[in-house]
Design goal:
Keywords: Transferase, Tricarboxylic acid cycle. The chain is mostly helical. Helices cover about 55% and strands about 5% of the residues. A three-stranded antiparallel β-sheet has the order 1-2-3. The structure holds acetyl coenzyme *A (ACO) and oxaloacetate ion.
């Protein structure tokens, strides 16, 4: 340790700092398992591929809140409760209508979710018996907030939620003002399943840290939304789409290989690639890649898919880095008509199930989260009066 640096630590005991907490195991969980070498993801016992093939988003919510799949009656009950909770309180609708049209959708969503606490009958009280009801209310209302803001900012009437249909179906209906077809609903539902849960990622860690102070679920989800919004986390899906749209502006013969190489040469990070845990292809990206390919052919967006593949191959050959979940979700969302600046909100619609599952788990076996920082500043300085500085 160099002279003048005072750590405040026993240096024998704390010889290094773990920047970014990489590899630190601070919680146990039954919510998900990730094998970063094999590229395997499991939600409460079920492989992501099994869930993608068989489950609905509502079943995944139940799974993440209860660590088991629902029987038919439990699933119907949950769907009913989610439908009952879709309507937004008038205070939140008023806020959405008055929000700046140019505001970031994730910022509006963050504020609106925070406001929901006021009109919740439980006031977000920290009580085991109330957590699942709060999780249902927040999960049900997030799609309504996203769709309402998107319509309000375009000067369109807000569409009231349906009293039927899946979360995916109702969201697309509220967003577009017309009922979606079977395929759009299925695509949306699959995206919700694939983004629901992912271990101790930055936003889930935020939610658990807030829970650990015994604050409340609304605060935890508000904080988690703030963490997800960043471009190194969930915000990367919007950044991926902006890159592809930039290529599109250059015309059909735009060169995605050169574009990627140039950015790498400038030491820029390429959004949608790399991961703290996966050292191979993210299994969700594999599933989304197949969807992206099929949808790009159906919607005439083949060029976007071709450029994505050029970027993928360049990242592999130049850096040996694979795509993460945000890479192909971008073109999937785009192909079903969602605007790029809403992409991270769609991620939120899904991830709220994992955040709330972790909140319930943390509360059941709580300990305050409180790591330490290595102090590297000065100590015991003499006070200098302001006029002498
Ligand atoms: C839902 C999600 O949150 S998935 C992640 C979404 N985020 C992104 O797509 C943003 C782009 N990716 C990244 O910034 C990173 O890969 C992260 C933040 C996701 C994970 O990164 P970390 O584990 O912290 O790795 P770190 O940033 O230290 O990168 C390690 C090395 O790989 C390089 N690298 C990692 N990702 C990328 C990338 N996307 N583009 C170019 N280089 C990259 C780094 O430059 C670094 O190289 P160096 O050792 O030569 O300096
Ligand atoms: O696990 C992470 O760090 C990021 C991620 O892929 C996710 O949250 O889905």
């Amino acid at each position: 340790m160099s002279e003048g640096i005072h750590t405040g630590f026993d240096e024998q005991k704390y010889p290094y700092i773990n920047r970014g907490l990489e590899g630190i195991v601070a919680f146990s969980t039954t919510k998900s398992f990730i094998d970063g070498q094999k590229g395997e993801l499991i939600y409460s016992g079920y492989l992501i591929d099994t869930l993608a093939e068989n489950a609905t988003f509502e079943e995944v919510c139940f799974l993440l809140w209860n660590d088991r799949l629902p029987n038919a009656e439990e699933l119907e009950d949950l769907k009913k409760l989610l439908i009952e909770q879709r309507e937004l309180p008038q205070t939140v609708l008023n806020y959405i209508q008055s929000a700046d049209k140019d505001a970031e959708p994730m910022a509006v969503l963050r504020t609106a979710v925070s406001m929901l606490a006021d009109s919740d009958d439980t006031k977000g009280k920290f009580d085991d018996a109330l957590f699942e009801g709060q999780a249902i209310a927040i999960t049900a209302k997030i799609p309504s907030i996203i769709a309402a803001f998107d319509r309000a900012r375009k000067g369109e009437d807000i569409v009231a939620p349906l009293k039927e249909g899946s979360t995916a179906f109702n969201f697309l209906y509220m967003l577009n003002g017309e009922k979606p077809g079977k395929q759009a609903e299925k695509t949306m539902d699959l995206c919700l399943i694939l983004h629901a849960e992912h271990g101790m990622n930055a936003s889930t860690f935020t939610a658990r840290t807030i829970c650990a102070t015994q604050s409340d679920m609304y605060s935890a989800i508000t904080g988690a939304i703030g963490a997800l919004k960043g471009p190194l986390h969930g915000g990367a899906n919007t950044a991926v789409m902006n890159t592809l749209l930039k290529l599109q502006e250059q015309g059909d013969d735009a060169d995605a290989v050169e574009f990627t190489k140039k950015r790498l040469a400038n030491k820029e990070k390429i959004s949608g690639f790399g991961h703290r845990v996966y050292k191979t292809f993210d299994p969700r990206a594999r599933l989304l890649q197949n969807m992206s390919k099929d949808l790009s052919e159906e919607t005439g967006h083949q060029k976007l898919y071709e450029w994505s593949m050029d970027m993928l191959e360049t990242m592999k050959s130049e850096k040996d880095i694979d795509p993460n979940v945000d890479f192909f979700s971008a073109t999937v969302y785009y192909s079903i008509g969602i605007q790029p600046d809403l992409f991270t909100c769609i991620f939120t619609m899904s991830r709220v199930s994992g955040w709330t599952g972790h909140f319930i788990e943390q509360a059941a076996n709580n300990r305050l989260v409180r790591p330490r920082a290595l102090y590297v500043g000065e100590k015991h300085l003499d006070w200098v009066p302001v006029e002498e500085r």
